[in-house]
């Protein structure tokens, strides 16, 4: 019987599941300061990219590159910040943050610059609608 994937509690708290790529969950970080998404490879006990199989590493790069391209276009990014940090949440997850020269943290990294801003229902719906209208290959929305 295959092992059931377990998501770190902090990622569950801080994000909303949008759907699935073949390897990763796509989640929206619940901070309305930025369009901020994460990819979480559905592999237990994985903290670093190099711990994935070669095939999973390649799939992760395909999913990450596709997501970055779509987000950049969809949200009109000045810059895409893509990073794995894992200092607080060790489970492998890749941040995809749409950045604007006008955002409150520019040009610095977003971590610790602004308190998280709660999504209003209306703004959250706009983001979700945008995402469901984009063309992500091999992706299934909830």
Written overview of the protein:
The protein is globular, with a radius of gyration of 15 Å. The chain has 142 residues and is α+β, with helices and mostly antiparallel strands. 29% of the residues lie in helices and 22% in strands. It has a 6-stranded antiparallel sheet. The protein has 3 helices and 6 strands, in the order αβββαββαβ.
Keywords:
142 residues; six-stranded antiparallel sheet; HIT family, subunit A; alpha+beta; 3 helices
Residue ranges: pLDDT <50 for 5 or more in a row? none
Question: Which strand order does the major sheet show?
Answer: 4-5-3-2-1-6
Query: How many strand units?
Result: 6
How much of the residues is beta strand, in percent? 15-25%
Oligomer: single chain
User: Structural class, from secondary structure content?
Assistant: alpha+beta
Rounded Rg: 15 Å
Q: What's the N-to-C terminus distance?
A: 24 Å
Overview in brief:
29% of the residues lie in helices and 22% in strands.
Helices and strands, with pairings:
Layout: H1 9-14, E1 15-20, E2 24-29, E3 36-41, H2 54-75, E4 79-83, E5 94-99, H3 121-133, E6 140-141
Antiparallel strand pairs: 1-2, 1-6, 2-3, 3-5, 4-5
